[in-house]
Amino acid sequence: MSAFNAIDADRDVERDEYTPGIEPQATWCPGCGDFSVLKALKGAMSELGKDPEEILLVTGIGCSGKLNSYFDSYGFHTLHGRALPVARAAKLANPDLEVVAAGGDGDGYGIGGNHLTHTARENHDITYIVFNNEIFGLTKGQTSPTSPKGHESKTQPHGSAKDPVRPLSTSLTAGSSYVARTAAVNPNQAQEILVEAIEHDGFSHIDFLTQCPTWNKDAKQYVPYIDIQQNDDYEFDVTNRPEAAEMMYETELAVHDGEILTGRYYRDDERRSYTEEKQAIGEIPEEPLAERYHDDDYEWERTYDMILDAHK
Ligand SMILES: Cc1ncc(C[n+]2csc(CCOP(=O)(O)OP(=O)(O)O)c2C)c(N)n1
Ligand code: SF4
Ligand SMILES: [Mg+2]
């Protein structure tokens, strides 16, 4: 028996298997969009037949960060904005793990924004879900990077003087190889997009619109969403970068007029992931690096004693 033998075991997985035996009741407020992310993630993993032992869910800090308390798999609740670097390291150490990172708009587009840029640039093979509720939820409704200009909160009582970030355009420019936007009120689309994103080999970024009825009552999250793949007004090729960029720009402008567009925006299936690039130049082995820690006979090129000696 090795610590890795659960990976790739082929069997049907019921969605209830991701519900933890302890603390099964989520403490999100009634009507919170975060419930939909949990539901879509359970549905997607079950559809893909992923065993809980095959999955690592890494979260940031916020209401969104509670996700891995309610999803039974390997989990790592990290620091504010730091889900991506932890997820990247885990994927490099064990490429067979299905690694999903998740966090809020404050977490991923504010304090952790730099990590988003570089994870996209390097095309790490992980799925990143950003719960976008346009505020800091857990800390009671302060203005976040996605709050609209003029949005009033305790930290901006006269209204925000800043334009919001453009998450889709930023992600594409940085280098993400799969970019989509879905919404808590659109559970079927959310699950379909999550399945695609998890299956995609490379960095998949999903901007997931999640309403916060407690602290963001005037948000536009309740208006009907338009699925750009289902609507003839929006024809473009998701594999064509300039066309995707134009569609994203239109989407990020439309949101100010209360028009919420969702769907798949971009995918590049040709580009190699960071792990594949590193394997191609011989910097990391084909087998999971992490297996070496379980191999008593493995001869390390550098040992802790050698490092200590070098610093004497
Ligand atoms: C370094 C650091 N700064 C600030 C905080 C306080 N803090 C906790 S959650 C949070 C905001 C969370 O907002 P968001 O990421 O949008 O998640 P949400 O709660 O809306 O899901 C902040 C500022 C912290 N935990 N760590
Ligand atoms: S404060 Fe907002 S984001 Fe947090 S659990 Fe409640 S509704 Fe959800
Ligand atoms: Mg938020």
Attribute tags:
binds thiamine diphosphate, Rossmann fold, 29% helix, 312 residues, binds magnesium ion, alpha/beta, two-stranded antiparallel sheet, thiamine pyrophosphate binding, 9 helices, 10 strands, pyruvate, 8-stranded mixed β-sheet, binds iron/sulfur cluster, Pyruvate--ferredoxin oxidoreductase beta subunit, oxidoreductase
Describe what you observe in this structure:
The strands form 2 sheets. This protein has an 8-stranded mixed β-sheet, sandwiched between helices. It has a two-stranded antiparallel ribbon with strand order 5-6. It is built from 9 helices and 10 strands. It has a single domain (15-310), classed as Thiamin diphosphate (ThDP)-binding fold, Pyr/PP domains (Rossmann fold), CATH 3.40.50.970. With 312 residues, the protein is α/β, with parallel strands linked by helices. The chain has helices at residues 34-47, 83-93, 105-111, 113-122, 167-174, 187-199, 241-254, 274-280, 304-310, and strands at 55-59, 74-77, 98-104, 127-132, 135-136, 142-143, 178-183, 204-209, 225-227, 260-267. Helices cover 29% and strands 16% of the residues. The relative contact order is 0.13. The chain binds thiamine diphosphate, iron/sulfur cluster and magnesium ion. Magnesium ion is lined by residues 62, 104-106, 133, 135-137, 144.
Indicate the overall shape: globular
CATH class: Alpha Beta
Distance between the termini: 40 Å
CATH homologous superfamily label: Thiamin diphosphate (ThDP)-binding fold, Pyr/PP domains
Instruction: Output the strand order for the largest sheet.
Output: 2-1-3-4-8-7-10-9
The total domain count is 1
Give the SSE order as H and E letters.
HEEHEHHEEEHEHEEHEHH
| Total strand segments | 10
Whole-angstrom Rg: 20 Å
Fraction in beta strands: 15-25%
Task: List low-confidence stretches.
Answer: none
Looking at the overall shape, the CATH architecture is 3-Layer(aba) Sandwich
